[in-house]
Every structure is written in structure tokens, then in C-alpha cells.
Amino acid sequence: MVRVAVIGAGAWGINHVRAFARSKGAQLTLVCDASETCRERARALAPQVRLGKDLRDALSADDVDAVVLATPAKDHAEHARLALHAGKHVLVEKPLALNAADAQSVVALADARHLTLMEGHLMLYHPAVAYLKTMISAGDLGRIFYIYSLRVNLGRVRQDENALWSLAPHDVSMIGHLLDDEPESVSARGGTYLQHNIEDVVFVNLKFRSGVSAQIQVSWLDPRKERRLTIVGSQKMVEFDDVHPVEKLRIYDKGVDRPPPFTEYAQFLSIRNGDIHIPQVPMVEPLEVECRHFVECVAQGKRPLTDGASSLRVVRVLEAAQRSLESSGAPVDV
Description:
This protein is an alpha/beta fold and 334 residues long.
């Protein structure tokens, strides 16, 4: 059994408490949070768990093999370093750090100490994303032209990070994973409406080495909750709607065909309007898949899907986007 401590049992961390309390191969031994309310909520989910107030309780515990960091983003890098120095495996929520230098130091430390470092890029453990990855790898969509994503809501407004760092890690990691590619440049613009110098809405443009373009829109100031990703390929197009309760994927047999030699200009390009296919994707909670994967990696010494190297790549993209934000949208090399 991998003995796990969850650090931070707030709005998202409490989900880790629930997931690890029932995860096969894991034993949730400790939950730490400064809030008594959060600690008692964790005890209600896992009555046998020991409670603590902060990370130090986990670092000195002999019955903790791995820590899950669901603390504020500004603390991720420092908390991860402390845990790795203490010989603990680490699952850290996104983003790994708020700059590439800190992220690099965490990755280097985990490698040097031969400990598992895994990032909580949840979307990569979503069954619909796994289905999409298989389709793209098999060439079912043809050549990928462009991708755009929408992650908006009238939701939680943060004070310690902007919408870019809070929401865009999901889409940056997902798009990079699906394309198996890295952006070469990024530009970003945003708006600050509720708080000074904290962007509530951000529009990010990514240019990939393969020539694919991607657009990401994130906001916590929007009338509707939307979580959509659209992929346009030369053969087919796909829409991933994570808000829809059942129909997560819609595959459109649509495109523009270029026929063989033609005699009239109107024959040069023709629109193809085919069927719409809604595949039945067996749904498992992505967090459950993520937690189980972390336990397996720790127990078997496997490299995580969302390892330190992939996490560092995401941070580099976000850091470049932040620099572009501060430069009125000027393109920044990644």
C-alpha cells in the first residue's frame, strides 16, 4: 500500500481526500489543512484518517510515502521541494510553479532523488481525451489544421493568480498532449475588470512547430459554464463538450475536398457534409484515474503520463503567455 497524505482540503483538495480514501492500492493516512472546518469535512469522508494543520506534519511522518499538494499555486514549487527533500513522492496540483526556473528546480530535484513527481493535469486522464488521442494518432481526422478551446464560467474569482494561470493549464496541457507537439511562440491579451492587475479573461494564441494554430479563451467572468474543445482536421472535425452529461464527443464527417484535375473553377473545392457520430465513451471520473495512476507509478516505479518534464513544458508556455500579456499581446518565443 502507498501511504498518502493530502495537503490542503479546500474546494479542490477535498476531492483528493475522497478519491484517495477509496483508491485501490492507497492508504490515506493524513490530511492537513489550516482550517478546522476543512479538517472536519475530511474526517467525514475518511473517518480513520489522522488530521494535521500543515505540510510539516506530513514531512515528519513515518507513515507517509507520498504527498498530494492541493495548496495555493504560489506555494506549489516550495512545498514540492520540501516534500522531495523529505523523501516523499509528490503529486502536485497545476501549475507546478509560477515560473519556469522554479519548475525546473523541482523537476531536477525529483530526478536527482529518484522520486515520483506527477502533475495534476486532470484533462489528460479524461476518457474522452484518451479517445481523441487515439483518433488523432490513427490519422482519423487527417491533417490537423487548428484547435480552439473555451473554458469559461461565472465562478470562483482568485486573488493569488489570474485566469491564465488558474484555468489555461488544462487546455495548454491537453492540446500539447493531443498534438504531441510544443508551441514555438505564444501571444496573449486579457482584461482586468474585478481586481487590479489580475486578468479575469485571457485570450491565448499558440503557434506550434507543426504549423497547427490553437486559440484558448479562459474566464471566470462569463454568463455560462462552458468547457469545449474543437479540433478541425482535413478529414473530420471533432467537438469535445465536457459540460454535456452524456454526449462528450461529436465527430463531424465534414470538410473541404480538393478533387483531381478539374475543368471549371467551381469544381476546384467542394464542401463535404457527412454524418455526425456520437461515440459512446465509457466514463470514469478523471480524478479517480489520475489518483490510481499516481499510486501505480509510486508502487511500480513507472514514469507518470503527466511527469515533471511535461509539467515544465506547460509552465514555460504559461510564462511566455504572461510575458505577452504584459507586453500588450506581443508574440513571445517559448
